[in-house]
Amino acid sequence: MPDPTTLTLEEKARLVFGADFWTTVGIADKGIPSAMLTDGPHGLRKQMAGSDHLGINASVPATAFPTAATTGSSWNPALLERMGAALAAECRVQQVDVLLGPGINMKRSPLGGRNFEYFSEDPLLAGELGAAWINGLQALGVGASVKHFAANSQETDRMRISAEVDERTLREIYLPAFERVVKKSQPATVMCSYNRINGVRASENHWLLTEVLRDEWGFEGYVVSDWGATWDPVEALKAGLDLTMPSTGEAGPATLVAAVKDGSLDEAILDRAVRRILDVHARLRATRTEVTFAASAHHEIAREIAADSAVLLKNDGGLLPLAQDGGTIAVLGPFATAPRYQGAGSSHVNPTRLDEPLAAIAEATGRDVVHAPAYRFDGGKDDALLGVAVDAAAQADVVVLMLGLPDAVESEGWDREHMDLPQVQLDTLSAVAAANPRVVVVLSHGAVVSLEHVVGKAPAILDMWLAGQAGGSALAQILFGLVEPGGRLAETVPWRLEHTPAYVNWPGGDKVVRHGERVYIGYRWYDTTDRDVAFPFGHGLSYTTFAHELLGVDVPDPTIAAATVRVRVTNTGERAGSDVVQVYVGDPVAGVDRPVRELRAFQKVALAPGEATVVELALDDRAFAYWGTQGWTVEPGEYVVEVGRSSRDIVATQSIVLDVPPVVVPLDVDSNFGDWLAHPIGARVLEEFGKAAAAGDSAGMLADEEMAGMMLQMPMVKVADFVAPGRGEQTVRGMLEALERLA
Ligand code: BGC
């Protein structure tokens, strides 16, 4: 790698901006090759000619893997690692250096336009899956660009909106997935988001890009702007942004050159960014070996992921899997021949092939298969279309009705206004179910949809999400039990939009969106407020049955916040299958309000019929911590460890007690009487103060327990004032001096 000091100021200024839409600047005579960055994240979008970040112009054929909303439901990091490796192979063959993904933002509302690109409403799950994906990708010398950093949960006004989020909520909800991937997989790049965070643009946010990302978490790569997220290149560079994409023409470099010359930008800051960019690209190139791949093999991986991520929400009477032989199957809905398998916008992929659900179903069975489109994608009423479908349903043994969100209904760039399926589809379900109640509803969609008018009408519901180019054949295999639906929900399915945590704070206005629900997003909200949901986080049925037995929660040393949870899982059914052990932790008595439970560990296990295995899941200090005024805080006392098959299906619970040091809140002149009482040395000072004051008239109240209880929330200055009128502050300052002497 060339030493930045051998480069001219002008050369350095050019190197921190894109050369064009997708490549960085190369300077041949200085030995600096250009690097290519492209979307991402569920397939390669290397554009052939016209460049854009909206998915408009064509790109080279590439495997369209299931999107993150789908793969999130796999709960299977090992599979995500294979997906990352497959993507890397495609990048290598196409000479792509950095793939723009994964997207690991939190799903704050079902309305988020890019929910299909994100894994989960839970940071642990998103972080684990993201880290695995990155490890798979980067092992082959292709860099990841984890995005969109940070608190970029909506599309509405995405380039100007300020996400107003308190620090605890950022630390516990919106940042931990990024922290996890940085610590576990050291992504080559982090992409800063468009939005502001508490008023400061992500691209100019020194706290975010430098203090948290680098100083605290140890990030070693470079920070790239989302496409067009840089406004002031000087401020951005100072804050810790390294590369601005795409090209800004001559303007950006000229601004930096002028800033260095007039002294408003230290050249060392520019050198630092140049070094980071060149260093990352050089490191990636150094790890590369020859790579080839077969498109058919990647198609198979895409199919495996689709099946492992499909969530069987409901299966009354064991309607699924369908028998290989029997009467006619009516496959209804236009998705049967025009599947919705990916989302729109910058992640749009030109697939190498596309499995049609109808053809795949017909191929997988010897049974007669009939098809009718049943309804129109555009939502228009068409009685003739419906009539044919109802007739087909009436004559069939079983109906597979495909419902979901058509392309036009969700996309990057805007948020949805409701979470309903198109009315025409719900009407179709009613009519079809009346003609034949044996209905399997198959769903295709990127963001959660309300199933309020579906659940009661269909005995079986299979959620395929956006299953990628091989989703059609994965569906056929699941329907006939050739593979099992391996997915568990990575996000709650609420009954109604009004029940969702961000409902009254979404999508904000006047360029501000307040995160009033704080840490209570997803199941943290539904479970803590005990709200009925259609399907809980972590839910998903299998074709077999499992028994989970909590063997114990071992705390080797109660003075250290760490535990191991041991669970025996047995496949008690007659088919092979997989299940996810989910470990949640709750802190029933805490110094701050906390969600009733939070996912702290998980593991997917695949078992043959009758087989059993013992899984051990480690809980570290963060599993018990909240973000308090002094950073990550673990309080001594009782914690409840729960083993569940969803956040609402807790199969075993064990309480543990941690004997960690008590939380000591530093005392100052503003502290409450209660703070003084709780402080180990402060309590002693308080006692002395009480004795000294005992002679005074008002001091008796301190001895009175009931009175003392009422005073817990009262500033010590005011308490002291009552004892010695007019001398409250003076007294407390004296107490603080005594405290310092004893410390
Ligand atoms: C999106 C990014 C994407 C970039 C390049 C932006 O509009 O937010 O996710 O990687 O464009 O296409």
UniProtKB/TrEMBL annotation:
Keyword Iron: no
Domain Fibronectin type III-like: 579-647
Gene3D superfamilies reported in the protein's UniProt record: Glycoside hydrolase family 3 C-terminal domain (3.40.50.1700), Glycoside hydrolase, family 3, N-terminal domain (3.20.20.300), Immunoglobulins (2.60.40.10)
Listed InterPro entries: Cellulose_deg_GH3, Fn3-like, GH, Glyco_hydro_3_C, Glyco_hydro_3_C_sf, Glyco_hydro_3_N, Glyco_hydro_3_N_sf, Ig-like_fold
Any one GO biological process: carbohydrate metabolic process
Gene Ontology molecular functions: beta-glucosidase activity
The keyword Electron transport appears for this protein: no
Alphabetically ordered keywords of this record: Hydrolase
PANTHER family linked: BETA-GLUCOSIDASE (PTHR42715:SF10)
Function summary: Catalyzes the hydrolysis of a non-reducing terminal alpha-L-arabinopyranosidic linkage in ginsenoside Rb2 (alpha-L-arabinopyranosyl-(1->6)-alpha-D-glucopyranosyl) to release alpha-D-glucopyranosyl (Rd). It is not able to hydrolyze alpha-L-arabinofuranosyl-(1->6)-alpha-D-glucopyranosyl (Rc).
Stated family: Belongs to the glycosyl hydrolase 3 family.
Name of this protein: Exo-alpha-(1->6)-L-arabinopyranosidase
Organism: Demequina capsici
